[in-house]
Amino acid sequence: MQTSHTGVSRTRQVVAAVIGNALEWYDFIVYGFLASIIARQFFPSDDEYASLLMALATFGVGFFMRPVGGILLGIYADRKGRKAAMQLIIRLMTVSIALIAFAPNYAAIGMGAPLLIVVARMLQGFATGGEYASATAFLVESAPAHRKGLYGSWQLVGQCLAVFGGAAMVAAVTHFFSPATLDLWGWRLPFVFGLLIGPVGLWIRRHMEDPEAFIEARKQATGPAPSLMQVVREHRRSILVSMGLACGATVSFYVVLVNMPTFAHKNLGLPLDQVLMVQMFAVALMTVVIPLSGLASDRFGRRPVLMAFTLAFFVMVYPLYVWVAAAPSIERLLVMQVLLCTAIGGFFGPAPTALAEQFPIEVRSTGVSVAYNVAVMVFGGFAPLIVTWLSKVLGTPVAPAFYVLFACVLTLLGTYCMHEAPRAKQPQPFSKEVKP
Fold first, then answer.
1. Model's pTM, two decimal places?
2. Cα–Cα distance for residue pair 302/423, rounded to 1 Å
3. Main-chain dihedrals φ then ψ at residue 242, nearest 5 degrees
4. How far apart are alpha carbons 185 and 41 in whole angstroms?
5. Are residues 237 and 310 in the same domain?
6. How far apart, in whole angstroms, are the C-alpha atoms of residue 226 and residue 234?
7. Is the domain of 190 the same as that of 307?
8. 436 lies in a domain?
9. Under-50 pLDDT residues of the chain
10. Domain count within the chain
């Protein structure tokens, strides 16, 4: 019996795909939350602000490496297989986390310390670039024909669990350790915990199998594998549509989830600990909504579900920002985040499968990598910078909503122009089959 046909093995396939994605986002979130401590340890300066900027700039290095890693690892996945690429990716992620967890600080080795952190972030960004496309292709190709939306949605469930877990780990170490202990060694514990995930993920991925759909496509292929330029030339419409689809997701993630605690604390004056509690509740809710909307897309189609939740988000985001800014309170912020995160989760569910379905199997990983990583780098990576600049230029706390609205327009265009794969009918139970 083939691995991909058994219920148990399908569960293992999902876990194998999700665990690397969770590891990548856990590392990103932990680094971002601990940036001020890392700045003091590896980027010392007489100016504390300058030190923090250098640490955050190093954080941003990962975004510039994502398209490079996405393209190279996407090509590797299309040529050598999803399993081979996903094993390589989790090895790279584990090495990058180990470099940060055990790197000597500036006081110990001087300039070698920040260089180690830069190398680690570049390596992590490179691996992250290939993870989304390879894991998404693997999940969609491993899924039953009538459950591709549900299987693809687990990709983003992994991201939400990582955000939740990263926030919880940082909250734990900052609560139980004194500032002096945190600076000395406590900040390393969340990275050490993340490092433990690596060997587990590698073991799971070693025992998974390439999807039958991918193996069959490889057998039917004639001639050499398409080059990057050939993929871009022959599938440029799919790439542009996919960039539009990814734009709204990445901007909403960074503005509404990642940047919201800083915005609510600094711009609205709300207590940071209460803001973080609201955020963790909203992320937990979104984690539940994502697979439900992925399942809904299997029944009603990707386009109707994507369009409905994107329009809902588009209609709500500006009035909610205005409402909260008019009389800032934790209660209003909670209502805002619950509504927005429900809409985001509804879009996130079908999005990975919709992206995968824009490309044929033989170039799927490469095509998704190019579209997704370019969109993330351009629209997502610069989102905090753009919304901060907009707030200053426009002189209003609701400025982030304008950038989100712009991204939603691009996503609506992408959704309208996307290729809608035919829906497969759910197989009937054996007991209900009509026998001759």
1. 0.83
2. 9
3. -65, -35
4. 10
5. yes
6. 10
7. no
8. no
9. 1-5, 7-8, 430-436
10. 2
Task: Give me the half-sphere count of Cα atoms (radius 13 Å) on the Cβ side of residue 307.
Answer: 12
Please list the alpha-helical segments (H only) found in 357-418. 364-375, 383-394, 399-417
Say how far apart CA 283 and CA 287 lie, in whole Å. 6
Give the span between the Cα atoms of 29 and 22, in whole angstroms. 11
What distance in Å separates the CA atoms of residue 28 and residue 167, rounded to the nearest whole number? 11
Residues 200 and 239 in one domain: no
Q: What is the residue whose two structure tokens read 């877990």? A: 165
- State whether 272 and 131 are in the same domain: no
Alpha helices in 267-377 (DSSP H): 272-300, 302-326, 330-348, 351-356, 364-375
Task: Tell whether 30 and 138 lie within a shared domain.
Answer: yes
Structure tokens at 359: 């490309």
DSSP 6: S
What are the tens digits of pLDDT across the range 140-178?
Answer: 888 888 899 999 999 888 888 887 888 788 878 887 888
Mark whether 160 and 251 lie in a shared domain. Answer: no
Structural domain that includes position 372: 226-420
Chain mean position to CA 69: 15
Q: Do 176 and 248 belong to one domain?
A: no
Q: Which of 368-392 are b and which e, b meaning 16 or more Cβ less than 10 Å from the residue's Cβ? A: bbbbbbbbbbebbbbbbebbbebbe
Contact 201, 90 (CB under 8 A): yes
Q: How is residue 347 written in tokens?
A: 């879009």
- Do 190 and 328 belong together in one domain? no
Angle subtended at Cα 425 by Cα 422 and Cα 428, rounded to the nearest 5 degrees:
170
**Token digits of residue 239:** 């790439």
What is the CATH number for 315? 1.20.1250.20
